[in-house]
C-alpha cells in the first residue's frame, strides 16, 4: 500500500555469472555484469519487498536493504536458489548460469604437454536452476511466481515463448543482446515481456494463443527493473 506496494513480499533474485573451475587457477565463465539483477533487487527493495540476492562474482556493491548471498558455481547457486525459493513469493532468475562445468576440476594446475597441440576438456551439463525452482513450485506449495530472463540474438519472441513453456515459467523478460548499447555489460536494456494469460493481475492486450505480451522501450536498467 502507498509507497510500499510490495511490503510483506519475499523476493529471491539470482544475478551475475557463475564461475566453473577447471583447476585451482582457471575457470569457465561469461561476460554477465550482474547489473540487471542488481537493478531488480534495488527496485524490489524500494517497493518494500524483503529481497535476497543470490549473486555470482560481480564487481557491484550490494544494494541497500538487500540481503546478498555470494556464490561461485552453478551448483552452489542451484542449492541456494532451491532453499531460498521455497518460502519466496517471487523468484526472478536473472543470472547467466554457465551451461556446462568441468566434469572434474583438476586438483593441480593443468600443465602444457610438450608435443601436444590440443587439450580436451570434458564438460557436463549444469542443472537448470529456474526450471528446478518452477518444477518444485508445481509439486509443492504453488509459490513462488517464477520470472525468467532470455538473452537472444534473433527470433526473440519464439525463443522466449519456448523457454517460458519448457521451463514452466510464469513470465519471461526477453532482450535482444545483438542491439548495440543494450544488454550484456551495458547500463541500458530493452525487453519484450511475455506471460501466460492469467499469470498477471493487471490488464494487457489479449493475444491469440494463451500468452500476453508487452514491449518495453530501451531505457536504463534501473528504470526497466521498476517497469518489470
Ligand atoms: O536457457 P537460457 O539460459 O537462455 O535461459 C535463461 C533463463 O534461465 C534465465 O532466467 C536464467 O537465469 C535461467 N537459467 C537457470 N539455470 C541455468 C540456465 C539458465 O536458472 N542452468
UniProtKB/TrEMBL annotation:
Domain DNA/pantothenate metabolism flavoprotein C-terminal: 8-201
EC number(s) recorded for this UniProt protein: 4.1.1.36, 6.3.2.5
Record note on cofactor: Binds 1 FMN per subunit.
Pathway the protein contributes to: Cofactor biosynthesis; coenzyme A biosynthesis; CoA from (R)-pantothenate: step 3/5; Cofactor biosynthesis; coenzyme A biosynthesis; CoA from (R)-pantothenate: step 2/5
Record's keyword terms, sorted: Decarboxylase, Flavoprotein, FMN, Ligase, Lyase, Magnesium, Metal-binding, Multifunctional enzyme
Keyword Ligase: yes
Cofactor(s) in the UniProt record: FMN; Mg(2+)
GO cellular component: phosphopantothenoylcysteine decarboxylase complex
Record's catalysed reaction(s): (R)-4'-phosphopantothenate + L-cysteine + CTP = N-[(R)-4-phosphopantothenoyl]-L-cysteine + CMP + diphosphate + H(+); N-[(R)-4-phosphopantothenoyl]-L-cysteine + H(+) = (R)-4'-phosphopantetheine + CO2
Source organism superkingdom: Bacteria
Biological process, per Gene Ontology: coenzyme A biosynthetic process; pantothenate catabolic process
Location of region: Phosphopantothenate--cysteine ligase: 11-228
GO molecular function, one term: metal ion binding
Binding positions for CTP per the UniProt entry: 93-95, 99, 109, 127-130, 149, 163, 167
Functional summary from the UniProt entry: Catalyzes two sequential steps in the biosynthesis of coenzyme A. In the first step cysteine is conjugated to 4'-phosphopantothenate to form 4-phosphopantothenoylcysteine. In the second step the latter compound is decarboxylated to form 4'-phosphopantotheine. Catalyzes two steps in the biosynthesis of coenzyme A. In the first step cysteine is conjugated to 4'-phosphopantothenate to form 4-phosphopantothenoylcysteine, in the latter compound is decarboxylated to form 4'-phosphopantotheine.
Protein family per UniProt: In the C-terminal section; belongs to the PPC synthetase family. In the N-terminal section; belongs to the HFCD (homo-oligomeric flavin containing Cys decarboxylase) superfamily.
Name of the protein: Coenzyme A biosynthesis bifunctional protein CoaBC
Organism: Halomonas campaniensis
Taxonomic lineage from the root: Bacteria, Pseudomonadati, Pseudomonadota, Gammaproteobacteria, Oceanospirillales
Gene designation per UniProt: coaBC
Amino acid at each position: 500500500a502507498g509507497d510500499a506496494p510490495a511490503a510483506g513480499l519475499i523476493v529471491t533474485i539470482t544475478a551475475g555469472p557463475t564461475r566453473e573451475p577447471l583447476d585451482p587457477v582457471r575457470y569457465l565463465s561469461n561476460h554477465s555484469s550482474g547489473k540487471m539483477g542488481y537493478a531488480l533487487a534495488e527496485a524490489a527493495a524500494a517497493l518494500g519487498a524483503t529481497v535476497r540476492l543470490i549473486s555470482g562474482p560481480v564487481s557491484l556493491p550490494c544494494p541497500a536493504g538487500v540481503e546478498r548471498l555470494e556464490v561461485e558455481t552453478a551448483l552452489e547457486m542451484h542449492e541456494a536458489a532451491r532453499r531460498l525459493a521455497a518460502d519466496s513469493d517471487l523468484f526472478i532468475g536473472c543470472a547467466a548460469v554457465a551451461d556446462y562445468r568441468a566434469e572434474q576440476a583438476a586438483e593441480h594446475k593443468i600443465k602444457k604437454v610438450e608435443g601436444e597441440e590440443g587439450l580436451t576438456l570434458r564438460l557436463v551439463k549444469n542443472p537448470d536452476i529456474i526450471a528446478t525452482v518452477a518444477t518444485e513450485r508445481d509439486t509443492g506449495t504453488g509459490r513462488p511466481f517464477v520470472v525468467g530472463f532470455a538473452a537472444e540474438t534473433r527470433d526473440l519472441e519464439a525463443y522466449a515463448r519456448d523457454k517460458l513453456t519448457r521451463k514452466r515459467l510464469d513470465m519471461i523478460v526477453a532482450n535482444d543482446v545483438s542491439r548495440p548499447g543494450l544488454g550484456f555489460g551495458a547500463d541500458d536494456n530493452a525487453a519484450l515481456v511475455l506471460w501466460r494469460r492469467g499469470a498477471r493481475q493487471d490488464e494487457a492486450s489479449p493475444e491469440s494463443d494463451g500468452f500476453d505480451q508487452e514491449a518495453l522501450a530501451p531505457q536504463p536498467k534501473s528504470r526497466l527493473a521498476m517497469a518489470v
